[in-house]
Amino acid sequence: MPLALWALTISAFAVGTTEFVIVGLIPTIAADLGVSLPSAGLLVSLYALGVTIGAPVLTALAGRMPRKRLLLSLLVLFIAGNAFAAFAPSYEALIAARFATGLAHGVFFAIASTIATDLVDRERESSAIALVFLGLTVALVTGVPLGTWIGQAFGWQSTFLGVVALGIVGLIASAVLVPSNLRQASAPGLRAQARVLTSGRLLLVYAITAVGYGGNFVAFTYLAPMLNEVTGLGAGAVSIVILVYGASVAAGNIIGGKLADRMGPVPALTVIFGGLAVMLAALGVALPSPVAAIAVVALWGGFAFANVPPLQSYVVQIAREVSPDAVDVASGLNIGAFNLGIALGAWIGGMVVQGMGLTAAPFIGAAIVAGGIVLVRLSGRADRHVGAVTA
Question: What percentage of the chain has pLDDT greater than the value 90?
Answer without folding.
Answer: 23
